[in-house]
Structures are given as C-alpha cells and as structure tokens.
Amino acid sequence: MRSSNPVFSRRGFSRDNGHAGFSAQPQAGGAAVGTQGNPYAQPQGANPYAQNPYAQNPYAQQDLQHGAPPQAPVTTGRMTLDDVIMRTGTTLGVLMVFAALAWALLPVDDANIGKSYGIAIGAGLIGMVLALVQSFKRKASPALILAYAAFEGVFLGVVSSVVDNRIADGAAMQAVLGTMAVFVSVLVAYKAGWIRVNRRFVGFVMAAALGFIVLMAINLLFAVFGGGDGLGFRSGPLGIIMGVVGILLGACFLALDFKQVEDGIAYGAPREEAWLAAFGLTLTLVWIYMEFLRIIAILNSSD
Questions:
Q1: Residue 266 contacts by C-beta under 8 Å, 6 or more apart in sequence?
Q2: Could you tell me the pTM of the whole model?
Q3: DSSP string, 156-187
Q4: CA 282, 42, 35 angle in degrees (round to 5)?
Q5: pLDDT digits (tens, 9 = 90+) for 187-234
Q6: CA torsion 247→239→231→167, rounded to 10°?
Q7: Which band of pLDDT confidence, cut at 50, 70 and 90, is reported for residue 76?
Q8: DSSP code at position 127
Q9: How confident is the model at residue 174 (pLDDT cuts 50, 70, 90)?
C-alpha cells in the first residue's frame, strides 16, 4: 500500500481491477493468492508478509491427515481498520491542536500579520519537506508523520485565521464542513461500488493531478516574478473553477486512499502500514480543505 496523494511515493498500487466489495477480496490470514492480485505477494516466496499457514499452527497438518480442512492460523501484527482509524485520528488530532494553537497565539492584526505570515510560511515549508521525506521512505515513520502534522497545523492555523478574520467570517468552519461532506460522500460512493478504482482510474487521476500541480507551479512563478495574480488561475472566476477542479481531484485521491486501505487489510499488510494510510488521508484532507478555503476567500473578495 502506498500514499495515493499529490506527493507521489514509490509504493505500487494493487494489480486488480475490482471495485469496492470486501467479500471479493482475500482476507488477511486467509489463503495465499498469486502475485497478479496481491500487491504484497512476490514471486518465489520473497514476500516478507506471506507466511506458511502451517508454521504457526502445528495442528493443521493433523487436520489434513484426518481429512479435515486446515484451520487458518491466528495472525498478529497485521493492519486492521481500527488501526487505520486510530492512526488517522491521532494524526488529524495533532494537526488540529497545532492549528488551534497557531490561531490563538499568532495574531493576524495589522501590527503582527507579517510575523505570523513568516512563521506560517516557515512551518509550511518544513511540513512539505517532511511530507516529501516520508513519501520516499519505504517504511512509515510515526514521528515523522506526526511532526508533519504539527508543522502543517501551524501553517493551516495562520492561513485559516487570516481568511476567517480578514476576508470572510466563518470561512474556516465552512471549509471544514465542506471537507467532511466530500469525505463522507466519497466513502459512501466507494462502499456502494459507484466508484471503480482500477488502473485506468489511477492513471487518469495521476495524470490530471500532475498537470494541475505543474499548472499551479507555473502560475506561482509568474506571480512571484511578474507580480499580481500570475496567470490568474488562483483568483477571480478562473480561480473558482480551478478550486473546484482541485476539490474533485482531492475526492479522487480519497477513493484511491480507501482502495489502499481495503487492499492493505485484505492482503495482510503489517500494522505499521496503518501510519502510511493515516499519512495519505491527512494529505488528501488538507488538500481538499485548502481548496475550499481558497474558493471561499475568492467569493468573498469579489463582494
């Protein structure tokens, strides 16, 4: 499993073309499957997660001798849905605590906004570096992920405070509600099988996200060196359209995240993979929240 987010990692996607439906997936600790469908299986027994079903169950061979089917061994140390929920809750909790502290301790009035902006930009850059480091690591680092959440929380706290206090009262809460609505909607659509996550879907989302990021980077360069709003992709009517596109991309990444979690549980990923799932979900939710906040700011700036 890998983080399926704008910060691309080296983990591969699952190779099946199925959609939501837990009954269609092999269960953790169940019978081994071939490498074609299991992203954790490797040829010639090289999979460190694949275990001999008889290695931990000395009675399984006796069952076979008596003509009874072997019983699946009790497995430990594998990722569960509860693990993902707990790690995600912890990561988002750290982010929200630091966002609240930044909101309260870094004022955005005329006398202090420059200093607060400087701290926010510094925290955002550190958070981005930590996110990139974790994205290219083979294993999850809980300390690194929580540090990212803390610095990202400082950045979001200051930005949210600026928009809420200086542009649109209540903008932060509106953005939170919008993010929650997208999360729930995508989860329901995924569980109902309305969203089919296959290789074609993954390829389309990755290509669209790469194009979006490159376009925003070019717009930022024009804004930095040319002044103003650059090419205008982040302001006015065009900025609203690009914000909607960003939210739709975030929704697609949520579907990829859900697929990664489902595959990880089904194929018996190790428990530490739950931290990668939490990291990916946090990145995606931050992405969606920022796009909502940007749209709200543009709409209220045009009044």
A1: 22, 25, 26, 27, 28
A2: 0.78
A3: HHHHHHHHHHHT-TTHHHHHHHHHHHHHHHHH
A4: 90
A5: 999 999 999 999 999 999 999 999 999 999 898 888 878 767 778 877
A6: -120
A7: low
A8: H
A9: very high
Please choose, from the candidates 14, 27, 107, 10, the residue with its C-alpha nearest in 3D space to the C-alpha of residue 268. 27
Q: What percentage of the chain carries pLDDT values higher than 70? A: 74
Residue partners of 296: CB distance under 8 A and separation at least 6: 163, 168, 171, 174, 175
Apex 9 CA angle, 172 and 257, nearest 5? 55
Residue 65, CB-side half-sphere exposure with 13 Å CA sphere:
5
Look at residue 171 and tell me whether its pLDDT is greater than 90.
yes
Tokens of 239: 């900025």
DSSP per-residue letters across 11-31: PPPPS----S-GGGSPPTTS-
- Cα dihedral sign for 59, 63, 64, 69? negative
Gyration radius of the chain's alpha carbons: 22
